Amino acid sequence: MICLKCGHKNPDHLKHCEKCNAVLLKMTHGEPQAAPSMIDVEDGQSYIQPERMYPTELIFSLIEAGYHYFAEQGTREDFLTAVEETDSRLASFEKEKLPRMMATYQEWKEEEFTSEYGRQMIYLVTKGFRLFREGLDTLQHFLSEDGDDRNRMVEGLIKVQEGNDNIALALELVETHIDIVGEEMKRRQMEAQARAFKEGKEKKEETYASSEAKPGEGEEGK
Questions:
Q1: Considering only CA atoms, which of 136, 195, 198 is closest in space to residue 161?
Q2: How far apart are CA 166 and CA 189, in angstroms?
Q3: Domain 50-55+75-221's class?
Q4: How far is 4 from 22, CA to CA, in rounded Å?
Q5: Which of 91, 72, 104, 76 is nearest to 171 (CA)?
Q6: Fewer CB near the last or first residue (10 Å), C or N of the chain?
Q7: pLDDT tens-digit series, residues 142-156
Q8: How far, in Å, CA of 170 to CA of 50, rounded?
Q9: Is 75 left (phi over 0), alpha (psi -120 to 50) or beta?
Q10: Where are the domains of the chain?
Q11: Contact 115, 109 (CB under 8 A)
């Protein structure tokens, strides 16, 4: 089973991660895997998926608080604080950065040479935020009850991790491709400006030539 704390895949019989020694939270009815495939298919179209986990300080703190709660090394209030902090950070990101990100991806989607790239980014980020939000809602519901349903807690943590991984993959791809996309867009803009300048110049020359020809035409008519 996969360790939610470090991402290491352990044999099913272990109770602690052989890499980081964290308690392995196992679901009783099967274990959903984080990012099970590199390809996701929806509406007849394929989309890339994360190949690995993307550890962040925020996610690590949340998962650690969950482990401590079930290992009785931390309180319900500690775990709830971690969930609320994660929720606050997600809401801030969603309000301040998401609109700009989606506007950029939509612009890429509308450009022929970046259409597929923009489509993938929109899907990854949209799916990522949906999973992240569903995971946090699951954890909040878990904590609002007795807090004894291990399956529900694991389900929530896995969804948060998967949501984070989808968003992180989108950001990683943007970081590695933004220069290429930017240079291509700049090149195309310069070509468009050059064409417009050339067309404008040719139009002016045609107008000038036409105006020069008119006096001659008048002389012939006399």
A1: 136
A2: 31
A3: mainly alpha
A4: 9
A5: 104
A6: C
A7: 988 766 678 888 899
A8: 9
A9: beta
A10: 50-55+75-221
A11: yes
Instruction: Say if residue 98 is exposed, middle or buried (CB neighbours under 10 Å; 0-12, 13-18, 19+).
Output: middle
Query: How far, in Å, CA of 104 to CA of 121, rounded?
Result: 10
**What pLDDT is recorded for position 212?**
67
**Please, which contacts does 96-104 make with residues 24 or more away whose CB atoms are closer than 8 Å?**
98/125, 98/129, 101/125, 101/170
Nearest one of 201, 204, 135 to 163, comparing CA atoms: 135
pLDDT tens across 183-201, in order? Answer: 766 777 788 888 888 887 7
Instruction: With CA atoms as reference, report the closest residue to 68 among 22, 106, 103, 32.
Output: 22
